[in-house]
Amino acid sequence: MAVYYYAKKIRQSSISGNVIIPPVSSSSAPSKTNSTPSALSAVPSVIAKSLPQTPKSPGSMGIEGSTSSSSSETVDDSGSEPDNSLVFQDNNLVSGPLDALLQHLVPTAEYYPDRTYIFAFLLSSRLYIKPHALLAQVVRLCMLQQNLADQKLTKDKLGRFCPHMVQLLSEWMETFPYDFRDERVMQHVRQLTQRCVALDPSLRRDVSQMLHNLLHRLTALEKYEEFLEKINTEASAALIDTVNVCDVTEVCSSPLILSQQLTHIELERLSFIGPEEFVQAFAKENPNVETSFKDMKKTRNLESYIQWFNRLSYFVATQVCSNVKKKQRVKVIEYWIEVARECFNIGNFNSLMAIIAGLNMSPVSRLKKTWHKVQSAKFSILEHQMDPSSNFSSYRSTLKAAMWRSAGAKDERQRIVVPFFSLLVKDLYFLNEGCANRLPNGHINFEKFWQLAKQVTEFMTWKQVTCPFEKHPKVIHYLQTGTILSENGIALSSFDCEPPENSHEKERFKALKLAAIHA
Questions:
Q1: Where do the domains of the chain lie?
Q2: What backbone phi and psi angles, to 5 degrees, belong to 228?
Q3: Where is the composition biased (Low complexity) (predicted)?
Q4: Pairing of strands 484-485, 239-240
């Protein structure tokens, strides 16, 4: 079991420092609320309001900030030429070489990097250096600057360095826990924490709690991935070409309750997507990214979430086309329109868009006689809200309103924002392109790092919301594993509902029947 694997690895990190890791509970993984990173509770609001900014490290403290928006200054953190220095504008970090940016991350006795900088750098630096190599560089710099290898070194000589170093590791684990599935990363954690605890025994409890929290997060992740594998296996077995479908209204007659159960699914799946997955997904597809990502964590949670959207769309189309009687098809379409409307009211835009996509699939949209009987005014309003024209301008305005409502809400129901995920991924993809491209002088464009961090932080705020609605496990299980027809199966069922009307449809129907015979 993964629980014992991670427990063993994390316990190894504490052997020399006599750090005690509390035993892992045999019960299910901690809830999303209980495991919410403390650092994240501060990062979203800070980043959203004050990006970009970061304090200058000790090497830059003697330089005065400029007041002109067009002026800039270079800060040499490494003692090398200006081209190897950090560049600030209006006291905001805008660019620098990787080595100088990495140096800016490393704490000292007097200096600790701003949380917004830590998040932005750890998020996007993986486009240039893998997490295990980054932590190795941090360890190397700490050893050199603080002379940690000196056996005569004392706590008094180091000042606040050890608490600062443990704090940096803690924030890294809280915001990017999946990085620590890599044994190479854990080797560096072991090296640093054991040395810090040996020098400052008062840190033993903090290190124990830090590793305990990490163990719970990695255990929860492993359990979730096992759950996904099981669900996906059941869902694959339920993919068929012939009609044998249970009507969703028999499982859940209330559109409101169904929309709430969809929101449960959305928020659970969102909660397990690591912020770094957006960067890794981009890196795998971009040939210009400098590092190889073959050994990085597969972005299965992000990909599974996108697959969930597709499944829901096919589920909706299946529910409509599996009813031979027109009256029942009309009822099912109107049911899903009501579900979509309730999703809109909740702020669940991903399920809303998936339902709209399902009702707009060709096998469903071609059922003209059916749609003629549907009270479709509500559907037209929803389609307008999610209209893709002008880069989804209507949806983006609605999303801003939902974010404003969420920011000031005390009721958990008002805090829910589930974005249209495919569009979010597209937006982040373009921001990643900016992060991956160096400036003409070879510097990394940290302004792009800030932009990506701000948008990803909004996502992190959304995914931390706990779904307040009553849970109906049978409905949730049905939505995730219930029978769906294949693409050809939906098309054939559509023609069974309403015969082909033109030569193109007749040819399509003929080809589908032929394919079904030879299947």
A1: 2-217, 248-417+465-518
A2: -60, -45
A3: 64-73
A4: parallel
Radius of gyration of the chain (CA): 27
Give dist(CA 490, CA 482) in Å, integer: 15
CA-based angle 445:123:453, to the nearest 5?
A: 70
Query: What would the pLDDT profile of 26-44 be if each residue is shown by its tens digit?
Result: 444 444 434 333 333 334 4
454-to-43, 116, 220 alpha-carbon distances in Å: 10, 9, 26
pLDDT tens sequence across 384-433: 999 999 999 999 999 999 999 999 888 889 999 999 999 999 999 888 88
Question: What is the distance of C-alpha 415 from the center of its chain?
Answer: 18
Integer CA distances (angstroms), 386 to 92, 182, 293, 379, 390, in order: 36, 40, 35, 11, 11
Give Dmax over CA atoms of the chain in angstroms. 89
Q: Return the closest-CA partner of residue 113 out of 126, 101, 96.
A: 101
Which pLDDT does position 214 carry in this prediction?
96
- Residues linked to residue 485 through DSSP beta bridges, in sequence order: 240
Could you write out the DSSP letters of every residue in 386-409?
T--HHHHHHHHHHHHHHHHHHHT-
DSSP 8-state assignment for residue 75 = E
Asked if residues 74 and 135 have their Cβ atoms less than 8 Å apart, the reply is no
Burial 311-335 (b: 16+ CB within 10 A, else e): bbbbbbbbbbbbbeeeeebbebbbb
- Both tokens assigned to 122: 């750890």
DSSP 8-state code for residue 23: P
Q: May I ask the CATH architecture of the domain 248-417+465-518?
A: Orthogonal Bundle (1.10)
